[in-house]
Amino acid sequence: MGKRILRGLAFVVANVIVMIILHGNSRQFWPKIPYLSLRNESTLEHSRLLFNTLLVVTAGQALIGKLPRERWLPRGIVMAVLPGLLPALIFFGQRVLRLQGETGERYNLSLVPILPIVAVVLEEVLVDKLNPSTPEPHADYSHLV
């Protein structure tokens, strides 16, 4: 259990760092990364940014050997589903909650750590569903009673 939490925490931190690097606003001192960084501030570009962030972190984990084979399919599903949810979350903040100005910016900024946390939880659920663990054999001592 502790290993799962540490792995999830490392995934969230890595996603937040990569997302900050790839966001590419005008105040950063490093250049935009071709094909990965934002081109503009549209909702679809932010969805692409989220996908690219998940892709870079996943590739990094695979390169250093920290992405076991049983997590490949769940991670692929997460990478396909999560960026698709971002437009709905942004729509919810803008149209349903009617957040504007600084409050809207705080809502959008809060999604930066929340989305990787959702990704970790969703991936853990999928790993458990797609790769059921086999129960450990139990010794049967009923004949001794």
What does this structure look like?
Helix content is 68%, strand content 0%. The protein is mostly helical. The longest helix is centred in the C-terminal third of the chain and has 30 residues. The protein is elongated, with a radius of gyration of 19 Å.
Mean pLDDT: 89
What structural class should be given to the helix and strand makeup? mainly alpha
Order of helices and strands: HHHH
The percent of residues in helical segments reads 55-70%
Count the beta strands.
Answer: 0
What is the gyration radius calculated from CA atoms? 19 Å
Keywords:
single chain; mainly alpha
Question: What's the quick description here?
Answer:
With 145 residues, this protein is mainly α. It has helices at residues 2-23, 43-63, 72-96, 101-130. It has 4 helices and no strands.
Topology:
Blueprint: H1 2-23, H2 43-63, H3 72-96, H4 101-130
Helix pairs in contact: 1-2, 1-4, 2-3, 3-4
